Amino acid sequence: MKFRAIFSAAALALGLGSGAQAQFLTAAEVKPILEMTQGNWVGVRVWEGNDLLYFTHLVTFRCGLEEVFFGINGEVPSVPLPLEPCYEGTAAPAAMDPVKYPPYMTFPVGSIHAVTLMMMYDDGDIQEVTFERAQIQIP
User: For every one of its 139 residues, what pLDDT tens digit does the chain have, with 9 covering 90 and above?
Assistant: First the structure.
């Protein structure tokens, strides 16, 4: 329900009427959604003795993103996040292959205290945000 409201708000922000649908393939289409859902960009979870750093939300809206880099614990965001290509011209341009492109990375348990993201949209805009572990901890 929450995401339906966000998508509706994004469609209105994009000037789409009830008959038009955004494909969420460009910065103009994904930026309003990502700005409204910033707290969901990444998550960290302890699983089987490891910290799993999830990027699921970002990779879902990767169409419209040119590049994403991250840094851990105050490091400059210089590690590239491998982004699956968008499948433009198909019925599901944001389809994902979680085996080829897992939406998470594994780190030693308790090692992630903060995550800094730097994203470049396909329109050249750059956004950088730092999240403390408590903000992104998944129970």
Answer: 554 544 444 444 444 444 445 578 899 999 999 999 999 999 999 999 999 999 999 999 999 999 999 999 999 999 999 999 999 888 889 899 999 999 999 999 999 999 999 999 999 999 999 999 999 999 9
Q: Is residue 115 part of a domain?
A: yes
Query: How many domains does the chain divide into?
Result: 1
Distance, in Å, from the CA atom of 127 to the CA atom of 111, rounded to the nearest integer, reads 25
CATH number of the structural domain spanning residue 77: 2.60.40
pTM: 0.80
Element (H, E) at 8: helix 2-13
Q: How far apart are CA 68 and CA 122, in angstroms?
A: 11
Tell me which residue range forms the domain holding 96: 41-136
